[in-house]
Amino acid sequence: MDPLSKLPIEHLQRILDFITLLSTTAVYHPGCLASTHFPVFTPYHQTSLSTFAALCRVNKHIASVTLPYLYRDPFQAINNQGCYYMARNWSRDLLLTLIKFFPAVQLHPALLLPFKMNATPATTSTDSNIDTNPSHLGYLAHIRHFNLQPFAFVEYERYKRKECSAAEQEYIQQPEFLDIYLKGRRDTICRRRAMSDTIVECYTALLHREATWSLAGPILEQLESSTFPLSDIRRYLQVIDRLGRLERVHFLLDWNLTCLCCGGSYQYVEKIRKQCEDQAMGQLIQFVRDHGRLFPGRLMHVNASLSHYLSYSQDIPKETLREILRILPPLYKITSINNTNWPRIAPHLQTTDFSHVRFIDRSAPMAKFHQVLQQCRSLCNISTNNLVPKSFDWAVKEKRDMLERPGQGTVYPVPTGRCVGALSSQATPLTHEL
Questions:
Q1: Which of 285, 302, 329, 356 could pair with 34 in a Cys bridge, judged by C-beta atoms 3.0 to 4.6 Å apart?
Q2: pLDDT one-digit tens code per residue, 224-274
């Protein structure tokens, strides 16, 4: 036995933790729904994955310890590779690795087509025929973060999107598919334009939502973060009691709320679009509210993005965003206030603890800014357009009141290591001396 294999499991885990720490850098992107995106890893993260994969080939003992690290967040590093073509291929390879643990009868018929699986299932994937025992599902038992992206199902030949296979073309023309994705629309015209971009986009959405359900459905209890297609949110609402460990959720806006290839007046199309949007946004709010009721304080971050394969622009309505932010619990021990996290903080000014805030970097207006400023007693640096003359008069008054108290006549120096304060304002120069 090699020396590495003689190490206790706890020591091996410490080594793997160290490899992960060295190889991972978290970067958060602005403009998200609930102020904090999932961490996006730099290419250095791929180094740890290669190391873990190599360790899995040493022997069974080391592999058993390493597999949970390799599959904890299997799609994340792939999703953020610079080469789109390689990322898509790796995603498909990983999907095949995970899907092979399922009998064909548990998979949706459409899911068998892009992977050319030679089986015809008797039934489609439903809540009742999904095995929810992760011990029988191989690598799935190690997954804690499931963030599959739809580009795994979008194939290209050079710079042109690859045509669907004959089997796929036949499937998407069946009434079952058209009734689901073109419900309430003039699908007779859509049928005539069989290979329109709209129908192909719907097919890609179908593949992504069924792959997500097939793989994530059996392990919902162990997921700490996940990406769910908004078009399938009703299915996850029905099993929300199984999402007790979920802390972050990302919804993909994968549902084309209007059919551009349909004829008819604009009023007709707009009415259908508005009905679909209202229903989807209502279910999104219900998901966040129900989870908060069942597991108070657990779900902390919600965000959403448009699926990149769609040919239209679509956003979450602002009123829906505000309602979700009100439902989410206040952030815990925040150390900075900035343009990214302020929308997440603003609905909870009365219940947020600002005593740990060390940096303020907020250019846009802030409601009740001076009320918040007085609570930031650990503040080191501030850069904002919200400062006005006499913004710190309260601090001067507090200091005078303290000095006027009996026994408080001596002023002691600030302890070494504590921030004295670096203040700046693009709007108004700060002239007060504290």
A1: 302
A2: 999 999 989 999 999 999 999 999 999 988 865 555 555 455 565 567 677
Is residue 141 domain-shared with residue 246, that is, in the same domain? yes
DSSP β-ladder status, 40-41 and 26-27: antiparallel
| Lowest-confidence pick of 31-40, 47-56, 97-106, 133-142 | 31-40
25, part of any domain: yes
Q: Cβ neighbours of residue 234 under 8 Å, at least 6 residues apart? A: 283
**The overall pTM is greater than 0.85:** no
Identity of residue 116: K
The set of residues, in sequence order, having a beta carbon less than 8 Å from that of 344 and lying 6+ positions away, is 34, 35, 36, 325, 328, 331
Helix 45-56 and helix 9-23, axial crossing angle in degrees, nearest 10:
150
State whether 224 and 151 are in the same domain. yes
Would you say residue 169 lies in a domain? yes
Q: Which residues pair with 125 in a beta bridge?
A: none
Strand partners, 157: 160
Q: Which domain holds residue 54?
A: 1-70
Q: What distances in angstroms separate CA 89 from CA 73, 140, 153, one per listed residue?
A: 17, 20, 9
Whether 172 and 192 map to the same domain: the answer is yes
End position of a domain, from candidates 43, 70, 97 = 70
Task: Write the burial class of residue 75 (CB in 10 Å: 0-12 exposed, 13-18 middle, 19+ buried).
Answer: buried
Quote the CA–CA distance of 305 and 342 in Å, as a whole number: 19
Domains in the chain: how many in total? 3
Q: Is the dihedral angle over the CA atoms 324, 326, 332, 333 positive or is it negative? A: positive
In a domain, 273, yes or no: yes
Domain edge (last residue) among 15, 45, 70: 70
